[in-house]
Give the backbone structure.
Amino acid sequence: MRRDLDEPQEEVSLNSTPSEVKEEPSSSVLINKGLMDKSSLDLVFAVEQMIKDKQHVEMSHNDLQDRLNHSNGQNDRLNRDLKNLGKVIEEREKNILELERKLADKNLKVDQIMEDFRELQSTMSGQNEELKGVIELERQNYAGLLQKHNEMITDKNKRISELEEKNVRYESELTQMKQKFDTLRQEKTHLLNVVNDFTNRLTSPFASNAGTTEESPID
């Protein structure tokens, strides 16, 4: 134990400064450490360290006492909260039992709905198979109608092309006939003019003689 005391006290002595010596408690200041040997100094330092430890323990004890009082206050408050929480839990348990009862009723209704759904699904499966057959038949009919439609469109386009060709040919023939008609009309007009002119010339002398004959009795 002596050796354990010597080692830390030597370290403290070496690391100590004059300012630190002045800050020692009043009890240590009264002792003239300069007149002490190493063993006495170690003992003094050990006692001072014990005093400091005691003071620290007392401070820790006071702090722990305060914390204990605070904890007791919290404990009392928690106990009150616990009682209130017990009442809340009891009320919640009642609500849970009521909800469980309602849930059981809901489950019965859900089971009935699921049974109805399975029956409906079975019925719908049969109807779906029938509808698939009808749809396949309609699809085949549609494919046939579509083919006929395409053939009709092709035939229609072909006939339209033929009619357009005939129309072009008829328009050309009509143009030629119009030209011939215009030529014939011009020739007819010319012939009519010639005939009229010839007729006028033939009738002019007779008209003059007739006029002379009609005028002579009046004279």
Remarks:
- Residues 1-30 have pLDDT under 50 and may be disordered.
- The helical segments are 2-15, 18-22, 26-29, 38-215.
